[in-house]
Write a structure and sequence with these properties.
239 residues; globular; six-stranded parallel sheet; alpha/beta; Undecaprenyl pyrophosphate synthetase
Length: 239
């Protein structure tokens, strides 16, 4: 295990490249998604081992429904499979699972599984594993606005009371450690509607590694680069 001067409290990962990984091997895209699940398992294990407090993975965006129906159906089946397979392991390893996103569009079976595993791991005190499923940053901000308007309509607050802290309190992950580092695999350099509010002052690390090939060494390398960054949070720091 590589030792770092500073371990980020919270890392978020855009897991990109499953399809291209499969295509390069003349395989179906779902083969890549299944390989990506193995990379998730390795990354979660290593994150927990080195003391990361929270890990947020972009598993299924609100835009992913636009993919071919067969692929979406297969992804939902893989999600169910992953929850069944990993639930007891996560709990045994003191990992808390938290799902962010609009799960109302998922099947009743999947929603029940999500609620059950979240309840089972709720009091675990180790790594917090956030899975963004049917999630989008714009949805998140829009949902926060709706909640605030609802409170205003009910007389719970006034318009003048709205500030950044109020908005933040309605945003996903507001009660978790701030996101220090965002990693995107697959060679693309974009955010893809991921955690738009939460990553205002996060550091970014882009790698050409396709997600199924992402491993402990790759995570260590990302953290090593993070350790070389000077985080200013909008301030001027005298040299």
């Amino acid at each position: 295990m590589t030792l770092h001067k500073l371990i980020p409290n919270h890392i978020a990962i855009i897991m990109d490249g499953n399809g291209r990984w499969a295509k390069s091997r003349n395989q179906l895209r779902m083969v890549g998604h299944r390989a990506g699940l193995k990379a998730v398992r390795k990354t979660v294990q290593h994150a927990s081992l080195i003391g990361i407090k929270a890990l947020t993975l972009y598993a299924f965006s609100s835009e992913n429904w636009k993919r071919p129906e067969q692929e979406v159906s297969s992804l939902m089946s893989l999600f169910v499979y992953a929850l069944k397979r990993e639930a007891k392991t996560l709990h045994k390893n003191n990992i808390r699972l938290n799902i962010i996103g609009d799960i109302s569009r998922f099947s009743a079976q999947l929603q029940t599984m999500i609620n059950d595993i979240q309840a089972m791991t709720l009091n675990n005190t180790g790594l917090i594993l956030n899975i963004a499923a049917n999630y989008g940053g714009r949805w998140d901000i829009t949902n926060a606005i709706k909640n605030i308007v609802h409170k205003i309509d009910n007389g719970q607050m006034s318009i003048d009371a709205i500030d950044e802290e109020i908005v933040n309190s309605e945003i996903s992950l507001h009660d978790f450690p701030a996101i220090d580092l965002v990693i995107r695999t697959g060679g693309e350099h974009r955010i893809s509607n991921f955690l738009l509010w939460q990553i205002a002052y996060s550091e970014f690390y882009f790698t050409d590694i396709l997600w199924p090939d992402f491993d402990r060494k790759a995570l260590d390398e990302a953290i090593a680069v993070f350790n070389k960054r000077e985080r200013r949070f909008g301030q001027v720091i005298d040299s």
